[in-house]
Amino acid sequence: MSELNAPHPLSAYGWDAGFADGFTPYAAEGLVPGRIVRVDRGRCDVVVADGEAGVRHVMADTSLVTTGDPLNIMCTGDWAAVDLSGGHVRALLPRRTAFVRSTSSKRSEGQVLAANVDHAVVAVSLAVELDLGRIERFLTLAWESGAAPLVVLTKADLVPDPATLAHLVADTETAAPGVTVLAVSAETGDGIDVLAAVLSGGASVLLGQSGAGKSTLANALVGGEVQTVQTTRDRDGKGRHTTTTRNLLPLPGGGVLIDTPGLRGVGLWDAEGGVGRTFAEIEALAADCRFQDCGHGGEPGCAVLAALEDGTLQPRRLDSYRKLLRENEWIASRTDARLRAEIRRDWKRKQAEGRAAMARKRGVS
User: Which residue has the higher pLDDT, 140 or 2?
Assistant: First the structure.
């Protein structure tokens, strides 16, 4: 293959013509592209092209792109314009996708967990009872991110009866319409090759609670002990935080995997569209309601309630749908209130500055 036709050294990390076009003005400044592998206290690990060697990792300072906006802060998966001579990240390329959750702070801020991913892999342990509501919550954020969600039921070796395993997969599928559900075991290797084929060549983020087996799954996909593994607690199946930072790992078949710490809280953040995708069958039913603004609470001609009565729609699904919609509306209202408060504070500050300026002017005159 000629050099002109040779793939870019960063192609395996997701670099393509679209990112190259967006990088053009930075290339003119002598900067080089790099993908953020890990962010840690004002510095980040970036993978960049390195001529015949392929790629190499460099540590770069992030102070020039540090922002007070939590939604625009650098995160694992970002593509960056790097000044190798100065050791700084100078700019971040626009994100194609971003997995965002609400923080637990009283300011109702969003937190970006991973950027520029094609697949959002929701890991769910079969060592404990399935929590379909939590799966729906993860899927809502995954759909909202712009990535394609995938549910992976881990530790399938703990369910030796094929009929029981098939039942668990079917139950999960009811909570994940239009989403692939795979049962895998990193212990026996069952299903790992299928999952690896799905993720090959793209960028994926691995999500789930502590104890879901994410680190073990990451090791199985990468083909080595790249992530430390800890056992779960016997009494409740929960695990300790094995992964404490978000790490981007290259996959043997091409593409990358971003492993994340276990998520205790998965709050929605501006996820109305994600709710609609997760509960696609309810949205489809609602389109046939007599009234366009039907609240599905007793209105005549409600197609959603009719589906409940004939058993087409399960009550649990409708309850979960309503719960996530209410939560999303509440977060949106708190965010709007915060923005209004910031506008008021800014207005009062400008007023105070204006009064101070007038006082100084009177003093001079």
Answer: 140
